[in-house]
Design brief:
single chain, 188 residues, alpha+beta, 2,3-Dihydroxybiphenyl 1,2-Dioxygenase, domain 1, 2 domains, 5-stranded mixed β-sheet, 4-stranded mixed β-sheet, 2 helices, 28% strand
Length: 188
């Protein structure tokens, strides 16, 4: 699935650090609802806050800071305004748009049902393909990943995703866009 990195031997993501409004609520969701073990807690010096780590599989972690003075997020700027099926997926440059967790393809639909049974609002299943719409109604050979989205208590957009095929050189075919292609002016 992945090519070899000639520069650095990277073993995945050590952790992705996000910010929450309520660490207890975050533990209840990530450990209680999603089943991720809480593996490390840190009380930051000088009353600055907390930093907690959850094992999200494969040796990787999702971590949260809790800062007593953190400003509230701004939907549509610091994060998408909602789930993709609700419309806009836009978030600001430098923001964290969403976190996608790999799940086994054979358990994908079961996991969606289990989250719904736990009271989590989930998006419809999306069969991502290379069609102009980017989504297929039905599963077929051109679908490269299946996914569905949901949000944590702070509105952080999460995704359960499973790859459905191997990638080839033909999957890297688009010319990268530049800052000059943006429709929104950049600010100094």
């Amino acid at each position: 699935m992945a090519g070899r990195n000639p520069e650095f031997e990277l073993g995945g993501i050590n952790h992705l650090a996000l910010v929450c409004s309520d660490m207890r609520q975050t533990i209840d969701f990530y450990s209680g609802v999603l089943g991720m073990p809480l593996i490390k807690t840190i009380e930051l010096p000088g009353g600055m806050g907390q930093h907690f780590f959850f094992d999200c599989g494969g040796g990787d972690c999702v971590a949260f800071f809790w800062f007593p003075d953190a400003p509230d997020g701004v939907p549509g700027i610091s994060a998408p305004p909602g789930r993709p099926e609700q419309g806009d997926l836009l978030s600001a440059v430098g923001s964290m748009n969403h976190v996608a967790f790999t799940v086994p393809p054979e358990r994908f639909e079961e996991y969606r049902r289990r989250l719904k049974a736990k009271g989590v609002t989930v998006s419809p299943i999306l069969n991502h393909d290379d069609s102009p719409a980017g989504i297929a109604r039905e599963m077929y050979d051109g679908v490269f990943v299946r996914s569905f989205y949901f949000q944590d208590p702070d509105g952080i957009l999460l995704e359960f995703a499973c790859w459905t095929r191997e990638f080839t050189d033909a999957d890297v075919s688009h010319t990268p866009r530049t800052a000059a292609d943006r429709r929104t002016p950049t600010h100094a």
